[in-house]
Every structure is written in C-alpha cells, then in structure tokens.
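Justification of computing resources. Each target in the renewal requires a structure prediction run like the one illustrated here; the chain below, 282 residues long, is used simply to show the kind of job we budget for.
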Amino acid sequence: MREKTYDELEFTDDFLFCNILIENEDLCIELVEMTTGRKVKSIVKPEDQKSIRLTYDGKGVRLDVYFEDEDNVIYDIEMQTTRKYNLRKRSRYYQGMIDLNILSKGADYNRLKEAYIIFICTFDEFGDGRHIYSFENVCRENPEIRLNDGTHKIFLCAGGDKDDCSEKMKDFLDYIAGRETHGKLSDRLRDEVIKSRNHEQWRLSYMLLEEKYREKLEEGFERGLRQGMEQGLEQGLEQGLEQGLEQGRAEERRKTEAERMRADAAETRIKELEAQINELTS
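Resulting structure tokens:
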C-alpha cells in the first residue's frame, strides 16, 4: 500500500497522533479525564514513541504516547487503525514491559505504579457494540472483590453503537472513524491537524522517516532477491550435479548393455561357426 504524503496525514496516523498530543498536554489531560473519569491537574512531559528495551538482544516495545500525572499514575495511549489478532495480548505485554521497566531501576514490587493502557480503535475490537470496554482484575467467584493490583486496560472503539458513554466520547470516536462531528474536542483536533500542515519541522521529520522507511524496504527487497538468487544458484548446482550424475549413470548403463549385446552376438556367432565346422568334418 502506498505511503501517505505529509499533507494526507490525519490524527489517526501515528505520526500526527503522537506529535499533536506531545505538543498539547491539555489534550492528553482531556483524553485521560474523559476516558478514565480521573481528575488530572498536571502531567510530566509526555514522551512520544517511548522505547523500552530491558536487554541488549531482547524484544523491546515502542509506546505511542506515554506520560505520568502528578500522582505518578502512568498512562499509555495507543492509536489502532488496523484490526490485529494479537491486540489483547499486546495490552498485557505493554503492561508487563512498563512494570519491568520500573523494577529494572531498582524499585521493589510495592513501588509499582498504577497504570492505564488505553487503546483508541477505529473498529469494535470485541463486537459487543460498545464504545468503551474497561478491564480490571476481579474475582470470578465474587466480582465485588477486586485484585487492586493497579492495572487498567481500556479500549475505546469507534465501531460501537450502544448508548454507553457521554456525547463527548461519542463525538470523539465519530471523529476517529472519519464521520461528521461538531463537538469542541473533535473541532480542536481537526484544527490541530490543519495547523500541522504548516509545521515545517514535522514535515521534514516525516520526510526523513519516509526516506528511512523506503531504504529499509529497498534493503529488504535486495537482501531477499540476493538470498533468492543464491538459493536458486545453490539449488541449480545441486540439481545440475544430480542430473549430470544421472546422465553419467545412464550412459554407463547404455555402454554396459551395448557391450553385453556385442558379447552375446559374438558368442552366438562362435557357436554357429563351430556347428559349421562339425558338419564339414563329419
């Protein structure tokens, strides 16, 4: 699929999603308050595309928009525009990496922070028609008993159709889905996208990312082509050798058979001559 040009980017594209939220902390706060119901006074400067890698050769994770509030509560906001089979497992993986990142700095388990992982989806991940799905660990036998381990996973789904959230949330998710909207939040986001068209530093950064992406694609294509040619050559040599050996064996069998036929013919001729001699001498 063709990559979008900078002027084609929308809020749902990772590049603008991250940059707009990083540059506008008030939007981060508004999204968090609307989603979680928490009141947030201030936040630590959010990080876009925060990378967590715990070992040199281990698999890391790249988080879209990551920040903490004044109570040291962690928020990770992810934009998801394509349906992937592993989205729910990814939420578990992200939580685990966030926790391990804290513990790797020497903190004990009691210092693990409360965390909200929020996925904004352009589709209904769970197919129940809801706009918001919130998950916490509770006792199956008695749902009133909560584990209170400080983990929260929330999925906002633009594909919902139930009357299960505020008009503000519905308007926001309609905007994410590309539908017509008139709310203050969606108007603000639309204005930020328009403003981004004149952000030359972002434009340059995106062009550089595109160039790196194309280089990686070309490197991957060339590597795959080279490996394919090498593999084909190796297979060709093996097949050629096998064919040559088979042809050599066939030629040897043909020669052997010819020699056997000549020997049989000679033996027959000798017997014929012996019979003629016997007739002459008798």
